[in-house]
Amino acid sequence: MTAWKLGIIGGSGIYALEGLADARWVTAESPWGAPSDQLLTGSLDGTDLVFLPRHGRGHRVPPHLLNARANIDVLKRLGCTDVLAVSAVGSLNQAMAPGQFVAVDQFIDRTKGRPSSFFGEGLVAHVPMADPVCPRLTAMAATAARAAGALVHERATYLAMEGPQFSTRAESRLYRQWGCDVIGMTAMPEARLAREAELPYALLAMVTDYDCWHEGGDVDVPEILRLMAANAAIARAAVKALVAALPAVRAPSPIDTVLDMALITAPEARDWAALEKLDAVMERILRKAGDAAD
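RESULT FIELD:
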């Protein structure tokens, strides 16, 4: 695999990308249900892109009802090699101020009730998540955001909460004691599922507010929307800068083959109905097995 095909998951305030050649909205079906919206395909500076608005155009899907399995599945199904996610977040760190950007490298998952894996009974896999983002793509995304004019912090821990409500003040203070830097509602289980799908994943977080731990008091939604609009313009410019800086040849990533050491269920014991739903996620494994059988 030598060509890049970059999947972009647009968070709050980012519902499309401008300037794509041969741009068109396409419908992609998934055995895991419906994704958040159609996907915008096209190319930028010769690199193929697939854009998915995480909440749907017009922001129709709340964070606790996102079908993250379908979203990741359709990106894989359309041939994406890597995924850059963009998300609005609150800050738990005084140094990470509203209007700034954060290249996240760690997560604490406090979501509940969201399907967090493509695998289950009849087909078991345990992917490593110690380092949950792709360091190569994350570094390139941070550099691109700076080129777009953003002040960018690196090496930050993201607390993923269920939502759709914001935190209580006690929760916000607790998460700061845990060493979390930013808080959001969407990156988990998205990052876990991208790893299972062998998709290198990076998260560029747009800080819209200090969470309610801050002396400013409660979260101010109108102010969040104002900063979201400003951040979204920078985020779109960062995507363009990232694409322009991609190496001509995509070198392999260890994440490309992470399932080789993650599948536990013996081949003869695997559930074929489960395998059918994993035709995109496990396409490389299934193709290799088919080649061996031939």
